[in-house]
């Protein structure tokens, strides 16, 4: 009987963890909808993705609404933020229409849209010079 109780407890914990994951996913989706963000492709932890979304949203909101999008400013700001927070060799491409083919470090790739702007943020490996 003791084995059955342990199994029931194990299954209960497992189901509760699934419910929590689902709640977090729903909250994440709602947050993305509020920021008008859509992930197009990603190989990046959620915490870094959220950092990129919030940074991009703050930069876009700080730009005058009457002026044209300053894509260079957005790209430079995201790159500098990620370089200073997560180490060097981050690259950022921002625009409304572009193509790309890049090699990135594992866990360091994010392609998303925010409003009508597309952002490609990726990290490359840094190798010391001999």
UniProtKB/TrEMBL annotation:
<dbReference type="GO" id="GO:0007017">
    <property type="term" value="P:microtubule-based process"/>
</dbReference>
<dbReference type="GO" id="GO:0045505">
    <property type="term" value="F:dynein intermediate chain binding"/>
</dbReference>
<keyword id="KW-0175">Coiled coil</keyword>
<protein>
    <recommendedName>
        <fullName>Dynein light chain</fullName>
    </recommendedName>
</protein>
<keyword id="KW-0206">Cytoskeleton</keyword>
<keyword id="KW-0493">Microtubule</keyword>
<keyword id="KW-0963">Cytoplasm</keyword>
<keyword id="KW-0243">Dynein</keyword>
<keyword id="KW-0505">Motor protein</keyword>
<dbReference type="GO" id="GO:0005874">
    <property type="term" value="C:microtubule"/>
</dbReference>
<dbReference type="InterPro" id="IPR001372">
    <property type="entry name" value="Dynein_light_chain_typ-1/2"/>
</dbReference>
<dbReference type="GO" id="GO:0005868">
    <property type="term" value="C:cytoplasmic dynein complex"/>
</dbReference>
<feature type="coiled-coil region">
    <location>
        <begin position="5"/>
        <end position="35"/>
    </location>
</feature>
<dbReference type="Pfam" id="PF01221">
    <property type="entry name" value="Dynein_light"/>
</dbReference>
<comment type="similarity">
    <text>Belongs to the dynein light chain family.</text>
</comment>
<dbReference type="InterPro" id="IPR037177">
    <property type="entry name" value="DLC_sf"/>
</dbReference>
């Amino acid at each position: 009987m003791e084995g059955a109780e342990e199994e029931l407890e194990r299954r209960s914990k497992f189901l509760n963890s699934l419910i929590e994951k689902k709640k977090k996913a729903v909250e994440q989706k709602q947050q993305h909808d509020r920021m008008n963000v859509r992930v197009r492709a990603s190989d990046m932890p959620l915490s870094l993705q959220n950092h990129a979304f919030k940074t991009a949203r703050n930069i876009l909101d700080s730009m005058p609404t009457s002026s044209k999008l300053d894509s260079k400013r957005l790209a430079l700001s995201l790159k500098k933020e990620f370089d200073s927070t997560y180490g060097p060799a981050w690259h950022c491409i921002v625009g409304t229409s572009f193509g790309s083919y890049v090699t990135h470090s594992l866990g360091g790739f994010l392609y998303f849209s925010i409003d009508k702007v597309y952002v490609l943020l990726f990290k490359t490996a840094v190798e010391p010079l001999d």
